[in-house]
Amino acid sequence: MTRFLSDEQFEEYIAPLTADQSSSIRDIRALIMQYAPELVEKIDDGKWFGGLLTYDNPEGQFVFALGPRSKGLTTFHMMPFYGSKSLQELHAPSLKKFLSGKSCIKFSLASDLPKQSIIDIIDSGTKQMPTIMASFQKRKDP
């Protein structure tokens, strides 16, 4: 089973983007492919992440969204960061100037990001997602 877009599909996706966006998306995607190869990539057509690349775990849980935003910026939504106090405590200080929401960072170039923080969020965060989602479900259940 192919988990990621084909090279042709990916090149078509980034073709209309700025050089910085293309480079940034390519860089973050490479980290996802390296550190979380079990994720499933698609181009989202939904309300919240429409037009972004989204990544779900094999259980179908949303993990990341990546893609272009206005003014030549790129966005990376990180559900593990949102759901893990330990990841927040460890990486919020280095991500502070990029944070644009509880789970989202915006940036011009991926090379400006703290690479080890991004790798840890992708690597350990992806592994934590089933536990994170179970704890959210527990809070919702009476």
Summary of the model, kept short:
The protein contains 5 helices and 5 strands. With 142 residues, it is of the alpha+beta class.
Neighbour order of strands in the largest sheet: 1-2-3-4-5
Q: Assess the beta-strand content as a share of residues.
A: 15-25%
Question: How far is it from the N-terminal to the C-terminal residue, by CA?
Answer: 38 Å
Got a strand count?
A: 5
Work out the helicity level. Answer: 40-55%
Radius of gyration: 15 Å
Major sheet characteristics: 5 strands, antiparallel
The SSE string, one letter per element, is: HHEEEEHHEH
Mean pLDDT: 94
Identify low-pLDDT runs: none
Shape assignment: globular
Q: Can you describe this structure?
A:
The protein is an alpha+beta fold and 142 residues long. The chain has one domain. Helices cover 47% and strands 17% of the residues. The protein is built from five helices and five strands. It has helices at residues 7-14, 19-35, 79-83, 85-95, 115-140; strands at residues 40-43, 53-56, 62-68, 74-78, 104-107. The chain has a five-stranded antiparallel β-sheet. Helix 2 crosses helix 5 and helix 4 packs antiparallel against helix 5 (115-140). The longest helix is centred in the last third of the chain and has 26 residues, at 115-140. It is globular, with a radius of gyration of 15 Å. The N and C termini lie far apart (38 Å).
Give me some keywords for this one.
142 residues, alpha+beta, five-stranded antiparallel sheet, 5 strands, 47% helix
Give the helices and strands, then pairings.
Elements: H1 7-14, H2 19-35, E1 40-43, E2 53-56, E3 62-68, E4 74-78, H3 79-83, H4 85-95, E5 104-107, H5 115-140
Antiparallel strand pairs: 1-2, 2-3, 3-4, 4-5
